[in-house]
Amino acid sequence: MLSTTKAVAGFVLAATGALAVNPGAAMVDTPCSGAECGIPEPSTCIRACLDEFSPQHGCTGADDWSCYCANYRAITGNAFNCMYIGCGANEYNTFNNAAVRACECLSAPCPSSSTVVVTTTATSTSASPTITSAPSCPHPCAAEISAVPECGISCISSAAGAVGCDASDYDCRCSSSAAIQQSAIGCVLGACGLEQGLEVADAVQVVCGCVSASPTTACETSTPSTTVDATTTSASTSTITSAPSCPHPCAAEISAVPECGVACISSAASVVGCDDSDYDCRCSSSAAIQQSAIGCVLDACGLQDGLAVADAVETVCGCVSASPTTTCEETSSSSTTTGVSTSASKSPIITSESSSTITPAPSCIQPCSAEISALPSCGVSCIASAAGAVGCEDSDYECRCSSSSAIQQSAIGCVLRVCGAEQGLAVADAVQAVCGCVSASPTSDCETIPSSTTSAGDDEETSTPVPSQPPVDDGGEGGSGSGSDGEGDDGGSGPEPTPSVPPVDGGSGGDNDGDDDDSSSSETTGAPGSGSITTPNPPVVTGSASNVMLIGTSCLWGVAAVVVALM
């Protein structure tokens, strides 16, 4: 949906004349210089991002503008998180808008000061312009165009100009919506927010529907029009390899990805050099692919199904990371290998089978407990899964906050589906408060419950945490005595000792009165023995209890980061 949003934004600008060009202006072939094009000076943060990511595409750094403009989409896609999330939406949008205008200027012929106002005549032989003149009559979809929200117009106008679409060329805007979307998505979300950005998307769909249904209107212009034969070629690489001859161990998860988003993801994956069957490559490049495909997916699937696509892709990559690379052989043994790999795909990334892998929860209160308790719980399960995938334990708040970018990429679809946009923003605000507290608070020196140590030998000692107190049996029955002696038999033995519970003595026998001087009575039965038992207090927190107690709080770290990235 955002792809069409970008296209529409450009259309609205066309209606206001934002990119209109003097229809009679003549162009020359001399390219403009950097000074004439107003190349922007990146901020310190933006420059650091460009210096990090532009060399991946053969550029020397932030000042290599000819290389940057030639690889604009790829560099912007790879550096999006660094620039948009790391430097902030305002800083990114300011630079991006200026960069788009500068690249457009550098790639187009520079107008001569002596010919800019010359009116084109029938004998004009000037070089073919890259932008055609605007028609002088209203567009048949003017009403739909005017309904597009204003907030995204400047973003899409800049992106549309970068792909050669005139401000009034609605056919070009709609047909190039995918490219425009990739360029303008960050700017649109930053300027409009998620909710209004979706409104822009809906309005643009209406505009492009009108454009496709309306016949081309032959509007007369003040000067003869110039026919431009523009050939657009899409570079394709020959490095794509054939699919393996045996089933992928994650075939079931792959087939569950909704069909509406498959083509979008495949196209975005090919841009970063990933073959259709190379899921290791796709998952390792998920951040760049997501930035490139998100608009196309929302446009093709709608918001609800788009979120389902995000969840399905997350499941696929979880399976891929858990499954060993499968080497398919052209023999019957391949079925055995596949079976083993499929079994491995069901194993969680992080297990808790061994008690030594889980540190007991601290016996004191977290310094940020107030902030933690204020977090909305709707996204807990989403982020628990995503945080576990990057190796963050449930109670490791520092890990959650420091890995928020990776957690965000994995959990974004699940969080938006479960929480909705409005509550997702509330989660973002709360998580920011928590991570601020975590970064400001020193690690507390809380004592932990001693871990259990179990040895395999029969003669070696074994120490275990004391379980909850079991029922205590009474002591044995009192002994019975006969009259001659004044003493009864000793009481019976108490219950057999159980692990970690001391033996219980049966107690003394009952008293009897005998025939001797000290006792004078008939046979009686002694009272039941009353042995005593000292039961240790149970541990304050058990290992399993700590997991349950902390799972609801620590999982929320990633949620906030996810929603923040969307804004």
From TrEMBL:
Residues 17-130, 123-234, 232-344, 350-464 form the CFEM domain. Residues 440-456, 523-535 have a biased composition (Polar residues). Residues 1-20 form the signal peptide. It is a lipid-anchor; GPI-anchor. Residues 327-357, 440-539 are annotated as: Disordered. It is found in: Cell membrane; Secreted. Belongs to the RBT5 family. This is CFEM domain-containing protein. The lineage of its organism: Eukaryota, Fungi, Dikarya, Ascomycota, Pezizomycotina.
